[in-house]
Amino acid sequence: MKYILMMNCPKTGYETFYAWPKKGIQAHMAFMRSFNKQLRESGEWVSGEGLASPHEAKLVRAGENGLPITDGVFPEAKEYLAGYWIVEVESPERADALAAQVSAAPGPGGAPFNMPIEVRQVMSGPPKEL
Amino acid sequence: MKYILLMTGTKAGVDTYRAWSKQDIQAHYAVLKGVNKELTEAGEFVATEGLGLPEQARMVRAGKDGAPITDGVFPEAKEFLLGYWIVDVESPERAYEIAARISGARGPGGVPTNMPIEVRQIMSVKPDEL
User: Which residue on chain B is closest to A34 by alpha carbon?
Assistant: First the structure.
């Protein structure tokens, strides 16, 4: 079963993170590297990406002629995707356990940050009837 | 440059989609399949995934002992990720064009949905380099 673990943040999430003490940032990144390594070694790694700052986010719609209409204005409370992991696991419980592990990544002072991680199943293809 | 095109929707929005006729859903998927084919042929395709339904979403945090605390309650206005495309393109404008193609996919009665697609750059700096 494939699950996606998503890390979301508010618009100012990146500035907040980069304002952490340098040691805190390094410890957090070291944790992420070792988490990635663990997933690769256990064969649970499928993919993962980090996204650029929400400040560069654009909302695009098709105009009447099919051309893009671009907009950079989002609701203030909007959550932005900061990064994700896709994992191949035996059970939903295993996905939750991995999410909890990421959630406990060290925060600015080194204590577990306990950030919320959104867990969703990844579909292996379009619905059967299609 | 790698960009991620995020398709999101509220629970209510997904319910509306599920009420589309089979024909409309098939026509919609046909456009999306066409986009995937076009991207693959252009060498711009990196990855795409569709996610499971929002009602199966859960938020996971590490508890004090590191064990997962799961919660399935989200604000009504929450935008759930429904699916994404990662493309490798020459410019942000090209990413917006592709987003507009997806946005212009046909909805009920063959009318383009013009749904908003969030476009974000994938970080080119890997955490390992920090």
Answer: B128
